[in-house]
UniProtKB/TrEMBL annotation, chain A:
Transmembrane segments: 12-32, 52-75, 87-103, 109-128, 140-160, 202-220, 240-264, 276-295, 302-323, 329-348
Keyword Transmembrane helix included in the entry's annotation: yes
Protein name, UniProt field: ABC transporter permease
Membrane topology annotation: Multi-pass membrane protein
Domain of life: Bacteria
GO molecular function annotation: transmembrane transporter activity
InterPro entries cross-referenced by the UniProt entry: ABC_transp_permease (IPR001851)
GO CC field: plasma membrane
Subcellular location as annotated: Cell membrane
Keywords from the UniProt entry: Cell membrane, Membrane, Transmembrane, Transmembrane helix
From TrEMBL, chain B:
Subcellular locations according to the entry: Cell membrane
Molecular function via GO: transmembrane transporter activity
Protein name: ABC transporter permease
One Pfam family from the record: BPD_transp_2
Keyword Ribonucleoprotein: no
Amino acid sequence: MDKMPKWADVILTPLISLILAMGISALVILAIGESPWMALTTMVEGALGSSYGWGFTLYYATNFVFTGLAVMVAYHASLFNIGGEGQAAMGGLGVALVLLYLPLPHWAIALPVAMVGAAAFGAAWAFLPAFLQAKRGSHIVITTIMFNFIAAALLNYVLVNQLRPVGSMDPASARFPEATNLPALTDIAAAMGFDWGRNSPVNVTFLVALAACFLIWVLIWRTRLGYQIRAFGRSEPGAVYAGINPVTITVIAMLISGGLAGMMAINNVMGEAERLVLNAVEGAGFIGIAVALMGRNHPLGILLAALLFGFLYQGGGELALWTSIPRELIIVIQALVILFTGALDNMVRMPLERLFLTMRRTSRGAVK
Amino acid sequence: MNIRESLIAILVLGICVFWALADGAAAQQGIGSALRLMTPLLLACLAGLYSERAGVFDIGLEGKMLMAAFTAASVAYITGSAWLGLAAGIGGSLALSLIHGLASITFMGNQLISGVAINFLASGLTVLIGQNAFGLGGRTPALTGDGRFGPITLPGAEAVADVPLLGPIYSGLISGQTILVYVAFAMVPITWWVLYRTRFGLRLRAVGENPASVDTAGISVTRLRYTAVAIAGILCGIAGAYLATGLSAGFVKEMTAGRGFIALAALIFAKWRPWQALFATFLFGLLEAIANLYPNLDLGIVVVPSMFMNALPYILTVIILAGFVGRAIPPRAGGEPYVKER
């Protein structure tokens, strides 16, 4: 018998973790002599108070949906992929190469091609850690960390020595061809006669992210492969006994994970910057960890958590702009969310379980 | 030492000797710089060694060092004393260690996730508090005078300075470092002795391999693991304090720059053993020093870009982890919380 009803596990525990994280963040803000209420209203106003703010919130959320899903798929195979940062960076390289060197006449053609390029590069970057984990038992957490640094060095080299246009001092690639630029949601809204989110970067990739959430839900809970991934994640010996090949599943799960992380690049590289710059990922790969933990490794939860972090990210930017609180506050909140939902999970869960057990006992006593 | 380790040792010594013969002054400068750069790596690596040998994975070395660097620099600036800074550094790092201990020992949470959280916590808090306190965009004001650890001239350094071979090595490299460099090097034999020659060390190693057996013997697994995590905190604290008050003159945002992860790499490279850790961190320090001195290393046939040199520790670690050159096997109970049988 479960100690807690399902709704408590799915909604209550992340909510309490979030409240704890927010509470401590409020204390931190108080400690540096600012008002938490003022900080919260500034963030809400900046991120949700206008369609412009929403445009940024949704843009950031799009990034986090991809990296969150990436962490989630690996997590269901009980692999902790903290290489999303490097995989997303390599995805950016894939997008840049495709857009710079293939003649793509229209964004509707460029988008699927760039998605393939992004996913292929992201997946390729996840392949070696996956293969080493499956075949040689090298711990995937350590190898993916190392691959993050190797990706950063590689990208630095490629941008400075290869992709940088002649005469440019900036370590960045040339601009992508005009025809491949993705339409922003504000353009679509304008075409339909609305004035929404002018000058905000959210683009059609947001819709791709929504589709990705649904597809990943289908993949994990409605297909044979998803079943194999979950079975392997629950119990490796059990999965092997059922005839599931652990090497194949580890590699496939990580390829999907890396591919998803890489796909983030169509949002930030193709959709927003429209060229490849240094450190384009800006920590979104790591935020994916918090998003996946917060979203309880379910696409719907991840979508909601990504929106929350999108709000925090945009709100944090506004905070830095209008108050003396630097945007690093968001990193603190992110750390606390990871801490409470991931590492200190039992601290929240154990008292809750006890509470529900006593409640059940007293209600049963009342019936008798 | 097995054949692989001997070969790598000969190779590294060969590089140093070759460098010294080709350009003595540059080699002295480079190796001296390597000694200073390896110090935080060595301390953090030994910190990870205590923690992981006791069965608690620690990928939060980076965050603890960063926090220590910040608290050390702040207190050293305010009080003007590097020693008080060192104490504050150890305190800052220990606070994060306590969180890691709570999460991974008491609440039996995921040690890797806890480490990730600690890294972000340090990365955010240092800038948040630093900006609030000093208003310099996350930096602390530059430290001067007693706020920093100065070089110490060892006895007899001037006397032997002109002796060939011995002179440059003793008075140029060994003498004239800050006290924390000597502390770091002294920690290697101390760690070896504690780990392999004391009862505590035996228990520490046992708790990382088979905690149930330690528990059966009537020794508290929880207490041993907390002790190990606290030692790791102290060592990371010294490492961070050295970064901010020895190597540089103050705290800069993200100043650890991945050193915690290189230390982790060195720990795997050393297969969780102290003398090998000394060696691995020297190798990685040397790589960093070479990359600093020669941004584009011209080897005659190919020009090695500095990015490659910077990534080399990580690449080497992946190769070691892959087990193609001797396998790195972590402590068996590493990463798993100990659940007492009821």
